[in-house]
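Practice set, problem 2.
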Amino acid sequence: MAVKNIAIKTKPDAAQRVQSGGGIELYLKRIFALMFGAVAVTALASFATMATPLWTVLFTANGLSAVYYILLFGGLALSIWAQVRAFSFKPSTGALMLFLYAILTGIVITPLLLVAVTNNPLTILSAFVISAVMFACMALFGYKTVKDLSFMGIFLFMGMIGLILVGLASFIWPAIMGGTFGTIVCFIGVLIFALFTAYDMQNLKRAYSVLGDGMQKNQLAVLGALHLYISFVAMFQYLLSLLNRE
């Protein structure tokens, strides 16, 4: 479960425009280095959880444990706080919170990975590859397109809230995610976060052009990495769920 703000928040100064070229290229490299670094941390956290007795604390005889829900909602709160306070933190502090959130996410998705390992371990690789290809295509589209994607913002935000509500309901009534309805939810989840990738990329490109100084650029890079990380991991989770549906 993941939440992100509907827009990239900046402190714009229209009188200070940056030039395109090397500056924005380095800025994007910083974003993707942080984002894929967080993905790698999530993978390592998941592997460490599955490879040690740590995974047992996530379960009880009747299902998921209280520890699991503490980590889940703790990570959710951390991601919201990090986004709201993104321009109040030093970039190093923001990056630290990004990687802490990545660790929590890696632990929280362990039950889903265990199901995949039991059913068909290859679905993990398939979901990752498909997510990576979709992410790359949508990120490139968002960066290159001249069409204004801002109109999608409110619809994507509403869709994300709907997915969260369905996810919360599934904790109470697990059967709700069974059958056709669960399949439709997974498809919608993949679509929403794929579109979020394009939307965020366009916002990040535009926001860069109105940033006032290097500190703000670095702060925005961390925030952008968090947004893109959330989209990538969410796509992976929904695809993995889709591939392991009975």
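Problem 2, part (b): a different protein.
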Amino acid sequence: MLDLSITIENIVIIGAFSENINLETANQKLENSKRNWKKFPGLAYKLKNPPASFLLFNNGKFVCTGIKTKNKGQQAITNLLNLLKTKELVSEGCSFEWGVKNLVASVAISGASVSLETFTSEFESIYEPDRFPAAVYKPEDTKATFLVFLSGKLICSGIADEETLKNTVKKFCDQLEEKNTLQPTITAPNSD
């Protein structure tokens, strides 16, 4: 039985305010907003409390990243909406809908590293060590994508709920073990 440590590193939330937002006016009224209309149709804004990054669009849609829990995400959206109301960018009656689009998690397999040579021969993956230090693997039966590092660390993305994420990671790590791609981590002895 593998000892796994799964940590949510980032949650990507998508949603929409119930009203359109004039991005030119928003760019003038919101400190720390950034735009480049020639390259991208949205407005980037960094909220300080809680720290979160938003992409805002004219039609009221938004993307929120940089948070690690759903509660912090909802708090960030609520705080942004209150700011938009204060700056008179939306009416007092404006509301929002939101949902988690993607979770990004780091996974540590305690006491094990991954033989990337064995891994790439057993799993259909992309591994170009001169370009990127991890193998990229997308299982056919899930929306997940894994980055597999020699150190035994994994990154998993593409799943929208925590329970599915945990089950997908466990299933994948069981496959790593079954196909003998894991090796014990060698630790140096203490020299006293």
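Answer key, part (b): The first strand starts at residue 4 and ends at 17. The mean pLDDT is 92.
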